[in-house]
Automatic annotation (TrEMBL):
Record Pfam families: Glyco_hydro_92, Glyco_hydro_92N
Keywords: Calcium
Gene Ontology cellular component annotations, sorted alphabetically: cytosol
Subunit structure, as described in the record: Monomer.
Name of this chain's protein: Alpha-1,2-mannosidase, putative
Cofactors: Ca(2+)
Domain Glycosyl hydrolase family 92 N-terminal: 6-255
InterPro entries listed in its UniProt record: 6-hairpin_glycosidase_sf, GH-type_carb-bd, GH92_a_mannosidase_put, GH92_N, Glyco_hydro_92, PNGase
Length: 745
């Protein structure tokens, strides 16, 4: 079964790759920032062992190298990120003395006495002599605790409010603990209430022998209700079940709407299912999702691939209850109803537009459409299309405006289960209007630096963006807006909006305004047209570039690689610059702006170098160890790159229907692309040495293109690649074989 290959701990320890050590700046960049999440694909709440008791930015709930278990956390951590957890709750079993402080109550645990799968996690808590396990569905979980010591059995419940604003209530007559944890924003409106809370209902299968609440170190036996006063004190509830050896089971419902919503989710989703039945349902959900791709290859490669696929399915997260209720975007009230779709949030858009969202379009088109409809509803409720929506709110966390890419890509690939006209109107508003409302602009609504982008065709160095997390990075913003404008142009053209399409297509060439023809590299520019002096394209960081070097960002022109080549003096100069990046160690796979670069040789008549370098990256930047990611996972993007690349193709320019071919790892990959339809890639004779395509056929006919289309995937069929250990420099080298570029078409 595919789920049996998943190693949930990959990326939960610091990266062991050389490139991460060479290119990372912040300590968090060296970490995958993943957690061993238990639940179902794209579930509302995931459950993880907790080793860090905080919702502080950039601190994940779990790190592999920690050795103390503080409880099971119902988490809304954005997988692999450097943001915050929010609205979470932790459940911890204890034996003997009642200790509430998370560090003091924690138990030593060993990875040797631990089982971790996508559907189940169990661990032996040495200090308390308890076996603790959890399994989960989309909005609910079950925990089972076997108390072996014969001492008093306690269970602690803690809403993880760093601000000390949590709420708990003990409902003894119902055998329940209920509560909530208010959510606060980071980035825009940092520290302000987000207007929502994470709600929970926990129902136990045995009668309480004792119970109470606690605030800091003060325990109140028989206390029933406690609301934090915002003094940054920890608080929670506890229950005791007597001093016999026993097994206690807890059923948990979660929601973002209310305690009643959490209880309804618990009753409808979990019902009277046994622990084993819930575990079986979760396992089946993972097998169905992962099983959409069948691979034939080594056992280690299957583990690498299915573990990556698992990590692409942890976000965006389901946000609506079983009855469709969800809190309004950017405020929380009133409650909305998702009619005919599931509402999702936590879109790590700057990362996931590249490959994680496109992968979902292939494997889960209905869910991809629901995600797009969720973005549309956010725009309708908030007034602007969000750019990086997290914790059900606007943020200006990263540069770009990549809702345009995600939505245009879905439409181009025949996903239509969303309000197309509303989507277009709000995307158009982002692209053509400047948000002049100071308050809402500060809150994250509207494109950053849009006024100067429209005025100059680029963002000059004088225009710093104080109302954003990344406050300068003018060249990166310009490059990304040019690509986003291209995506919207394709959407506009498809809808017959010719005037918009023409204008946006012209703006898609704005990248030319920040590529210096004298160097061929992306370079900061002043409003009067002067280029910044003292320029080093290989400097690890530059103020006008986002999280990387000018040399790395130069290649972010996915819509017009042919045009970029002209600035660089043609295909030969372009390929030579790529060679410099790779051969001299300037490529950094651990951050997303680099992800399409290895595939760009295919645009220059040298696809064999794409085959060479994608295979090298796969083998040097990923493995199945706990440090097997070379940078932050970032909402599934690091793993989506790997999943696509192992299958043998990659979406260089989402918004077009093309996938550029690389070097598949597997002898055979079969992708479910519709009912009774599969697209199969056969790589004959493939190995790490035999990584080069010698010849190809598609459905039995000779094939020399370096890309396949989404339509070809949907239709089903077989692409056969004959592989060899030496490059065939003729295959795919003609202009007619190369992928789309705006300047060519």
């Amino acid at each position: 079964m595919p789920v049996d290959y998943v190693a949930t701990m990959i990326g939960s320890a610091p990266s062991a790759t050389e490139s991460a050590k060479a290119h990372s700046e912040a300590g968090s960049e060296l970490k995958g920032q993943t957690i061993p999440a238990v639940g179902v694909p794209n579930g509302m709440t995931q459950w993880t062992p907790q080793t860090r008791a905080t919702e502080t930015k950039c601190i994940a709930p779990f790190y592999y190298n920690d050795n103390k278990f503080q409880g099971f956390r119902g988490t809304h951590w954005l997988n692999g990120s450097c943001v915050q957890d929010y609205g979470s709750v932790t459940v911890m079993p204890l034996s003997g003395e009642l200790i509430t402080n998370p560090e003091k109550r924690a138990s030593i645990f060993s990875h040797e006495k631990e089982q971790s799968t996508p559907e189940h996690y169990s661990v032996w808590l040495q200090d308390h002599q308890i076996n603790a396990e959890v399994t989960a569905l989309a909005r609910t979980a079950m925990m089972r605790f076997r108390f072996d010591s014969g001492e008093e059995s306690f269970i602690i419940i803690e809403p993880n409010s760093d601000e000390g604003e949590g709420f708990v209530e003990v409902l003894r007559e119902r055998g329940e603990i209920v509560g909530y944890n208010p959510v606060h924003r980071i980035y825009q409106g940092s520290g302000q209430p987000a207007g929502i809370s994470g709600y929970f209902v926990i129902k136990f299968d045995k009668k309480f022998m004792q119970s109470g609440v606690w605030l800091g170190d003060t325990i109140t036996p028989m206390g029933r209700i406690l609301t934090g006063k915002g003094n940054r004190e920890k608080l929670g509830a506890y229950v005791g079940f007597g001093d016999e050896k026993q097994v206690i089971t807890a059923r948990i419902g979660t929601s973002f709407t209310s305690i009643e919503g959490a209880r309804a989710n618990l009753e409808k989703e979990l019902g009277t299912k046994t622990f084993e039945a819930v575990r079986k349902s979760s396992r089946e959900a993972w097998n169905e999702a992962l099983g959409k791709v069948e691979v034939a290859g080594s056992e280690n490669d299957k583990a690498l691939f299915y573990s990556a696929l698992y990590r692409t399915k942890l976000s965006p997260r389901l946000f609506s209850d079983v009855d469709g209720s969800y809190p309004s975007f950017a405020g929380g009230t009133p409650l909305q109803k998702a009619d005919g779709f599931d509402y999702y949030c936590d879109f790590s858009m700057w990362d996931s537009f590249r490959a994680a969202m496109p992968l979902g379009i292939i494997l889960e088109p209905k869910r991809a459409g629901d995600m797009v409809q969720s973005l549309v509803k956010k725009a309708e409720q908030g007034g602007w299309m969000p750019i990086f929506p997290c914790w059900n709110h606007y943020t200006a966390a990263m540069v770009g405006d990549h809702g345009m890419s995600v939505i245009a890509d879905a439409y181009a690939k025949n996903v239509r289960n969303f309000d197309v006209n509303s989507a277009y109107n709000f995307l158009r508003k982002n692209a053509f209007e400047v948000n002049t409302n100071v308050k809402s602009y500060e809150a994250g609504q509207g494109r950053r630096a849009q006024k100067s982008y429209l005025q100059y065709g680029y963002i000059p160095l004088e225009d710093s963006v104080w109302q954003a997390f990344h406050k300068r990075e003018q060249v990166s913003r310009t490059l990304e807006y040019a690509y986003d404008d291209f995506c919207l142009s394709t959407f506009a053209a498809s809808l017959g909006k010719t005037e918009d399409a023409d204008q946006l297509r012209s703006r898609a060439l704005n990248y030319r305004n920040v590529i210096d023809p004298s160097t061929g590299y992306a370079r900061g520019r002043y409003a009067d047209g002067r280029w910044i002096a003292d320029f080093d394209p290989f400097a690890k960081r530059a103020s006008f570039i986002t999280e990387g070097s000018p040399a790395q960002y130069t290649w972010f022109v996915p819509q017009d690689i042919a045009g970029l080549q002209k600035i660089m003096g043609g295909k030969a100069g372009f390929a030579a610059k790529l060679d410099t990046l790779f051969e001299q160690g300037y490529y950094w796979h651990g951050n997303e702006p680099n992800h399409q670069i290895a595939y760009l040789y295919a645009f220059a008549g040298q696809p064999w170098k794409t085959q060479q370098w994608t295979r090298t990256i796969m083998r040097s930047e990923y493995d199945t160890s706990v440090g097997g990611l070379s940078g932050n996972e970032d909402g599934g993007q690091m793993s989506a790159w790997l999943a696509f690349s192992m299958m043998g193709f990659y979406p260089v320019a989402p918004g077009t229907d093309q996938y550029v071919l690389g070097s598949p790892v597997f002898e055979e990959v079969s992708i479910e692309t519709g009912k009774n339809r599969k697209f199969t890639v056969k790589a004959k004779g493939v190995s790490d040495n035999a990584r080069y395509i010698q010849s190809a056929t598609l459905n039995g006919k000779p094939f020399t293109r370096t890309y396949v289309t989404h339509g070809e995937l949907l239709k089903g069929g077989t692409l056969v690649l004959q592989m060899g250990d030496k490059p065939n420099k003729q295959w795919g080298a003609q202009d007619t074989d190369m992928p789309f570029s705006l300047s060519k078409h």
